[in-house]
Specification:
Helix content: under 10%
Mean pLDDT: 94
Structural class: mainly beta
Radius of gyration: 13 Å
Number of strands: 11
Number of helices: 0
Distance between the termini: 38 Å
Length: about 120
Amino acid sequence: QVQLVESGGGSVQAGGSLKLTCTVSEYTVNNFCMGWFRQTPGKEREFVVSISATNATIYSDSVKGRFTISKGNTKNTQYLQMNYLKPEDTAMYYCAATRYFRACTVTGGPFDSWGQGTQVAVSS
């Protein structure tokens, strides 16, 4: 497993943007299949997006065209740019990682390392 730290959450009005950051300790993001999930109280964790070591991406239909995952120049960070945010995007967002590269060939993982989460709130 690897330590992951998210940042960048906050409150925004509908139509606005936020950029989340996931920092990987001790390793480069290219060692992993990485992804983002989100969860609201009382609901199961929902897959948002994944990015492979070779930068292949899978997006959930709910965020396709609005969210973009990318890797930073520092090699141990990846970003989730969220545009045109909607109230239904309100959730705790979690960064995820796994060394199992095949996890990035299917929607939703599996992932075995998780961050503590960062809250995103979108008001109407």
